[in-house]
Design a protein that fits this description.
Number of strands: 6
CATH architecture: 3-Layer(aba) Sandwich
Radius of gyration: 15 Å
Distance between the termini: 31 Å
Helix content: 25-40%
Order of helices and strands: EHEHEHHHEHEE
CATH superfamily: Phosphoglycerate mutase-like
Shape: globular
Length: 174
Amino acid sequence: MKIVEIRRHSIRHSGGDHLSQEGVALARKVGQGIGPFDYVAASALPRAFETAIAMGFSVHEQNELMNTYGGAVEREAPWPMPFFHYSEVVKQNGAAARYAYQLMDYYTAILNRIPQGGSTLIINHGGVVELGVVACLPDVDFSTWGDAVSYCEGARLFWDDGKFVSGEVLRVSK
């Protein structure tokens, strides 16, 4: 079994690219209860990289695929929506589905690099988290997963025998 933890970045300065002090504190708090990780990837935007560092993890890779998903996907899957709505959008096989499956392929490539029993942390953004998760778990009923992820929230997915087998939503207590 391997595990991938996909989380949204922490709180940033209003309208800015970098974490606020409140965001650093939240990421530190969350980071104390997770890990260790064999591999850490983040979007190429500063707030994602800074979140991983504030959580206490060095970043092995930054990838622009996870920065944002562009206008065509935004029209189909405007953030924020509950996980269930993202899963319904992906089933329509449009631009959002194509993007979601690119994320799934990227996560799979990372999982193939880490050892059996290993884990990886991925930090990206609202909407990106949900789309990637629902693509990885197409048969899951997301009606109980709730609203879109907030800061430092996300999902933990379990990988076994070359495929995603289950997952759980990760919420941060306020």
